[in-house]
TrEMBL record:
Protein name: ABC transporter ATP-binding protein
UniProt keyword annotation of Phosphoprotein present: no
Keywords: ATP-binding, Nucleotide-binding, Transport
Domain ABC transporter: 16-242
Superkingdom assignment: Bacteria
Provenance organism: Dyella halodurans
UniProt GO MF annotations: ATP binding
Length: 298
């Protein structure tokens, strides 16, 4: 094989790796060429507007659906043909868990636990108590938030090397959400668990994620360290008289009624801001994560 075409060690061993992932539904294109490699121990927060394609990306990454194009690998194996050995190392919690709804919470956890060599039955029991789930209640009779809690307990108790959570906090109350974030941080810190979770809640990202990726218009933007975003991106405001000097490469561009421009700009390879930031009358503002997303997606 041509050395140039050989995959790097990083991409072949990565807990998750996708290249050129593209998918469309009847309504149109959702993913238009997504590349992502998750290094071991990363806690990646995937953010994007409703309908941006986060669930589709997650499902394609894990081989739960076949994308129209592209490649997805989990611990080096093709996602669509994962061996049982790799499946044991993964826990996935969908946005709306529905599986095994005819079992009680305790029955489901006992049953599923048999498939995981590192299953922590004591943890599962303790979490059911802590999160007020009656062990003998049927999953089908639980509220969406309770159902989501049971599935999160399942994921955590399996002590996976890779945990993928699709909007895990969506139906959780603030106390359970805080517990979950603490568990994620603990697992990532102590056991080096790799985590990917999608969310709309920027403060959750700031609390627990090491990295963020923003899914927008079918592509991943801003895939970088959470702390890095504040250093790397800013809002440049240019008065109308200077708008012709706006840089061509920007992440977003809004023209105001008075002709002035607001642009989200990025530092160059050597850490420099675009030249236009030095123009008389130009203003560069720092952006918090939430503002950054609103500027780009709004
Ligand atoms: N099975 C399907 N058939 C047709 N369209 C679909 C299907 N699944 C998703 N879509 C559409 O694809 C787009 C992306 O959906 P997806 O659920 O991946 O987005 P999301 O970012 O997870 O959204 P949300 O944040 O609202 O959960 C949406 O417009 C959705 O309506």
């Amino acid at each position: 094989m041509n050395a140039m075409l050989q995959p790097t060690i990083e991409s072949t061993d990565a807990p998750l790796m996708v290249r050129g992932l593209a998918h469309s539904y009847e309504g149109g294109k959702v993913l238009t060429g997504v590349d992502l490699t998750l290094a071991p121990g990363t806690v990646l927060g995937l953010i994007g507007r409703n309908g941006a394609g986060k669930s589709t990306l997650i499902r394609a990454m894990l081989g739960l659906m076949q994308p129209l194009a592209g490649e997805a690998r989990v611990f080096g194996e093709p996602a669509l043909k994962l061996s049982d050995k790799v499946k044991e190392r993964i826990a996935y919690v969908p946005q709306q868990p529905e599986a095994l709804a005819w079992l009680s919470a305790e029955q489901m956890l006992d049953y599923v636990g048999r498939f995981y060599p590192r299953w922590d039955a004591a943890f599962a029991k303790a979490m059911l108590r802590k999160w007020d789930i009656a062990p003998n209640r049927l999953l089908a009779k639980l509220s969406p938030g309770e159902r989501q809690r049971v599935d999160l307990i399942r994921a955590l108790a399996s002590q996976p090397e890779l945990m993928v959570l699709d909007e895990p906090a969506a139906a959780l109350d603030p106390v359970a959400r805080r517990d979950l974030l603490r568990e994620i941080a603990l697992r990532a810190g102590d056991a080096g668990t790799t985590v990917l979770f999608s969310t709309h809640i920027v403060s959750d990202l700031e609390r627990v994620a090491s990295d963020i990726a923003f899914l927008h218009e079918g592509k991943l933007l801003l895939h970088c360290g959470v702390d890095e975003t504040k250093e790397r991106y800013a809002r440049l405001w240019l008065p109308a008289s200077m708008s012709a000097a706006a840089p061509a490469q920007v992440l977003s561009r809004h023209r105001h009624e008075d002709g002035s421009l607001s642009l989200v700009v990025e530092r160059g390879a050597h850490g420099q801001w675009p030249e236009a930031t030095g123009l008389p009358g130009a203003r560069l503002d720092a952006l918090g994560l939430e503002d950054l997303f609103v500027e780009i997606a709004g």
